[in-house]
Specification:
The complex is a heterodimer of chains A (666) and B (67). Chain A has 666 residues and is an alpha+beta fold. Chain A contains 21 helices and 22 strands. Chain A is 51% helix and 17% strand. The model of chain B has no long low-confidence stretch (mean pLDDT 88). The chains are: A alpha+beta (666), B alpha+beta (67).
Chain lengths: 666, 67
């Protein structure tokens, strides 16, 4: 709580207690003497007792609002909510005084208005306080994600540790990060091995081991040992600072819903105030002209005061952006960085979801899938890994990972570019490569027609067999595609791979369309075709690795890059960043976006419904004979239409921080 | 040019009204007054002096503050 909030809370509590004491004693006295506080003395001026009591509380709790209201009238701001609130409450007090004076001659007239005037302003202040408190709290919960306030860095200069502000650190400085501290600058570890917690960056809860020479991103927390880091980027360019800025600025570009609300609220107040004025004058005047009875002005003025009380669109204006704000904060806890609230809205109206293949739907690491003939499996793999002993090619790595044996033999290797390798080990000559290599060396081999990469293997000119190698599909890809298919969103896979491989993955994942053999630069053109075929008002999402597809990311309505937190270009080009490599984040994101919009809609409908109901009821009361007795009581209901709905809408928005998302993370 | 200011504003509707008022200043392309983050982003052709922004904002919201 801020100082201001504490002070205001104290005032609200004191005023509420005083109000209740007076209000209840009035009720009790009414039971005893039938007249309440006024009945204490028999003086003609006894109405001043409740008036002074309630009005003092009114001034105590509302002095700031009243002052603001006056300042705003001087500035010509007639439609300011402070002013309207003060106008309606002063109106209630005035009516109280008016009926009081009338009741001097005619005791049957009931004095009403003092408690209403005081209560409405008191509730208004409570609402304002609650609004301010909940927003401060939400803001804090997001700042706590990556708590950067008063962050300090230990720099090592000439073997001395100096504590500095992160802004003072320059590139190539050496910083020391002790266990339990957050790394604040991106760099390379030059000394020490440790374990780091990357949760606030990636949402991944498992700690990660790091060693000397590893690069390290700011935002992670060092857990076990002290490490020394050579700084590679200044603080303002560091990952942690960029993420913070990104989240904080995300709510600056407004969603369509927000723009609608903003436009709506501009007219809402004007219309309600004009209606109030109209209601106070026209109907009683008409009744007067028609029936010759001009005594109805009071009833209608009561109603018009109720109009003023619900004239503030505050609940709408607060709760809608608050929901988006909280949702963006929530997403960041799952390693999903959203660059604008508008994307949360757009994701609910997807026409198609386009995926890059390698590294997005597949793991991007290759694995031995099949060996033909199976009975020679060990022999084939042994010789193949012997021949690929020194290679770092992804395919060679896949073979070596499969056998997992260390080879200490002396092997001489000749690389034949685009074909394979020839290896010599003692008297053995091993050929490992594609069909072209086999043909070149006149090996009689069985050509395998496969949807994977095929490697053939021959020993001393005798064909041994073949190895099929595949990129593995990510465990979660199927679930992600299924969830999109279920909602009738077109799924498309773009890939540079051959058509056979593409078809296999398309079928395995149940993707609706695929475009194979694409060069990176052609992906953008394909995406445009897809976007043009989409229905108007539905959006196209693209998920890629963010490295060679910046153009596609930019062109798509919603561009998502995955797992490339340290790469500026990827963050720059995309609208949403999945900080880890988890494609399942898309499901989490869609669930969150759906619930966010749901809450936003709930709030809008609820607020408008209540306000309109109250307006309608307030208008009806003075017109219907049996309800006239209720006239001023409407003010009690209408204050609910202002403060009550505000608080309920904020509470509803806060649900976004509690709703159930994917449990496998966090 | 785009400039971001840290601000103090008390209520969401006031922020909105200040935003609408600032939008009418000459040379201003876009304004976003963010109650949630207490930040204001001003996109303009030329730099608008802080004093002028404050003057217009305070007409709507006397408590408005630019830090």
């Amino acid at each position: 709580m801020t100082k201001k909030q504490k002070k205001n809370l104290k005032r609200i509590i004191i005023a509420s207690i005083l109000f209740l004491i007076i209000f209840i004693s009035d009720l009790i006295l009414e039971k005893i003497n039938g007249r309440g506080l006024i009945g204490i003395t028999n003086s003609k001026l006894s109405f001043l007792i409740p008036f002074i009591l309630y009005f003092s509380i009114y001034l105590y709790i509302g002095n700031k609002t009243i002052l603001k209201a006056f300042k705003n009238i001087i500035n010509g701001e007639v439609l300011d909510e402070n002013f309207l609130m003060v106008l309606s409450t002063i109106g209630a007090f005035s009516l109280g005084l008016f009926t009081s004076i009338k009741s001097i001659n005619d005791p049957s007239i009931k004095i009403e208005g003092f408690d209403e005037g005081c209560a409405v302003l008191l509730f208004y202040e409570i609402g304002e306080w609650f609004q301010s408190y909940s927003i401060t709290k939400s803001r804090k919960s997001i700042k706590d994600l990556l708590d950067l306030s008063d962050a300090k860095v230990t720099v090592i200069e000439n073997n001395i540790e100096i504590v500095k502000d992160p802004n003072e650190i320059k590139v190539n400085d050496i910083i020391l990060v002790k266990p339990g501290e957050r790394v604040l600058l991106d760099g390379i570890i030059i000394n020490g091995n440790s374990t780091i917690d990357t949760k606030s960056l990636t949402g991944e809860s498992l700690p990660k081991d790091i060693k000397e020479g590893d690069s390290i991103l700011s935002g992670v927390i060092n857990l076990t040992e002290s490490i020394k880091i050579k700084v590679l980027k200044e603080y303002n360019d560091s990952t942690v600072k960029r993420i913070m800025d990104l989240i904080e600025n995300a709510t600056n570009n407004k969603t369509k819903t927000e723009n609608f609300i903003n436009k709506f609220s501009r007219y809402y107040t004007v219309v309600v105030v004009i209606l109030a004025l109209f209601l106070a004058i026209i109907p009683p005047l008409l009744i007067g002209i028609i029936k010759g009875d001009y005594s109805h002005f009071l009833d209608f003025i009561y109603s018009s005061l109720s109009f003023l009380v619900v004239s503030c669109p505050c609940a709408l204006v607060v709760s809608v952006p608050l929901t988006f704000f909280l949702s963006i904060g929530r997403a960041s806890k799952y390693g999903i960085l959203i660059k604008g609230s508008t994307y949360l809205e757009m994701i609910n109206r997807l026409g198609s979801a386009v995926f890059d293949k390698t590294g997005t739907l597949t793991k991007g690491n290759f694995k031995v899938y099949n060996v033909i003939p199976e009975k020679n499996r060990n022999e084939i793999l042994y010789y193949a890994s012997l021949a690929e002993k020194d290679s770092l090619h992804p395919i060679a790595l896949a073979i070596k990972n499969e056998t997992n044996i260390s080879i200490n033999k002396d092997v001489s290797i000749i690389n034949i570019s685009g074909k394979g390798v020839i290896a010599k080990e003692s008297s053995n000559q091993i050929l490992v490569g594609n069909d072209k290599l086999m043909e070149e060396y006149h090996i009689s081999f069985e050509k395998v027609l496969s949807d994977s990469t095929v490697i053939y293997c021959a020993l001393n000119s005798k064909y041994l067999g073949s190895i099929e190698i595949r990129d593995e599909i990510k465990d979660d890809s199927k679930e992600v595609i299924d969830s999109l298919n279920k909602d009738n969103i077109q799924t498309v896979m773009l890939t540079g791979d051959n058509p056979l491989t593409a078809v296999r993955i398309k079928n395995e994942l149940n993707i609706s369309t695929y475009v194979p053999s694409l060069l990176p630069e052609n992906k953008a053109t394909e995406l445009e075709k897809i976007m043009n075929n989409n229905k108007k008002g539905s959006y196209t999402l693209y998920v890629g690795d963010g490295i060679n597809d910046a153009l596609v990311l930019l062109k798509s309505d919603i561009g998502i890059s995955m797992g490339k937190l340290g790469v500026d270009a990827a963050i720059e080009a995309s609208d949403i960043v999945f900080t880890d490599d988890n494609i399942k984040s898309l499901i989490t994101l869609r669930t969150l976006a759906k619930k966010t919009m749901r809450i936003v809609k709930e709030n809008i409908i609820f607020i408008l419904l209540i306000k309109f109901l109250i307006l309608f009821f307030a208008m009806l009361v003075p017109l219907i004979e049996d309800l006239i007795a209720l006239n001023i009581k409407i003010m009690w209901i209408s204050v609910f239409g202002d403060v009550g709905v505000l608080i309920l809408a904020i509470l509803n928005s806060l649900r976004i921080t509690k709703i159930k998302l994917d449990d496998s993370k966090r | 040019m785009i400039k971001t200011y840290d601000i103090e504003v008390d209520c969401a509707n006031c922020a909105l009204k200040v935003e609408n008022a600032l939008k009418n200043i000459e040379n201003i392309i876009n304004v976003s007054v963010n109650y949630m983050t207490q930040k204001m982003v001003i996109e303009s052709n030329t730099e608008i002096p802080k004093k002028e922004l404050l003057k217009i904002a305070r007409k709507i919201e006397p408590d408005f503050e630019i830090n």
